[in-house]
Amino acid sequence: MIHPLVAQLNFTRSEWQRGLEGVNDTDAVKHLGPMNCISWLVGHMAWHEQWYLLDLAQGKRPYPELMTRYAYQSAKSSPRLAEVLPIWLDVTHLTQPYLEKLTTANLQDDLLRHGKVVGQNLGTAIQRLIYHYWYHTGEVQVIRQLLGHHGLPEFVGEIEELAPYRSEYPC
User: Fold this and answer.
1) Percentage of the chain modeled with pLDDT above 70
2) 169: pLDDT confidence band, cut at 50, 70 and 90?
3) Residue 171 pLDDT > 60
4) Using 50, 70 and 90 to split pLDDT, how confident is the model at 165?
5) Nearest to 20 by CA among 124, 123, 92
6) What is the distance between the alpha carbons of residues 100 and 97, in angstroms, rounded to a whole number?
7) Which residues contact 65 (CB under 8 A, 6 or more apart)?
C-alpha cells in the first residue's frame, strides 16, 4: 500500500494530465499577458518533480536543462508541448518507484543539497509539489478558457475512487 500522501500526489498528477487533454502545440505556446504558456508550465512541473524527488531526494538529475529553462523565475520561453510533455512523463515515471517505497518515517527525512539541509523535509516538499500542481492546473484552465477551449474539466475528478482520504497507513 502506498503512503496516503503519495496517493494524493498521484491523483494530482492525473488531474494535471486531465487538464491538459486536448491542448495542441499551437495553443500550448501562446502567451496571454504576463502568464507563461501551457507548454512552459509542463516543463516547470517537470523541473519541480525532478528537483525535489530525483535531485534533492536521490541525487539524480536526468534532465539538467530543466534547472535553467523551467526553474522558478526562469526566462519566459515557448517550448513545443511535444518536447516537454515526454520529459514530464519520464520524470514522473522515474520518481514513481521511489515514491511507492516511502513510509511515514521517510517523509520526515530532511532534504539535502550538497550535504546541507535545504529547510524542509520530504513530506513537506511533496505537499508543496501537490499544491504547486493545483495552482498551475487552475492557471492552465484559465489560459484554455481565454483561448476559447470548450468542454474543460469543471472540478476535481474521481477523488473518491482514486485517492480517498485514509486515516490509517501501516508505517
Assistant:
1) 98
2) low
3) no
4) confident
5) 92
6) 5
7) none
Residues 6+ away with beta carbon under 8 Å from 27: 38, 144, 147, 149
pLDDT digit string, tens, across residues 82-106: 999 999 999 999 999 999 999 999 9
- What one-letter code names the amino acid at 137? T
In the chain, the amino acid numbered 12 is T
Q: Write b or e for each residue in 72-82: b if 16 or more Cβ atoms lie within 10 A of its Cβ, otherwise e.
A: eebeeeebebe
Distance CA 87, CA 93 (A): 10
One-letter amino acid for residue 171 of the chain: C
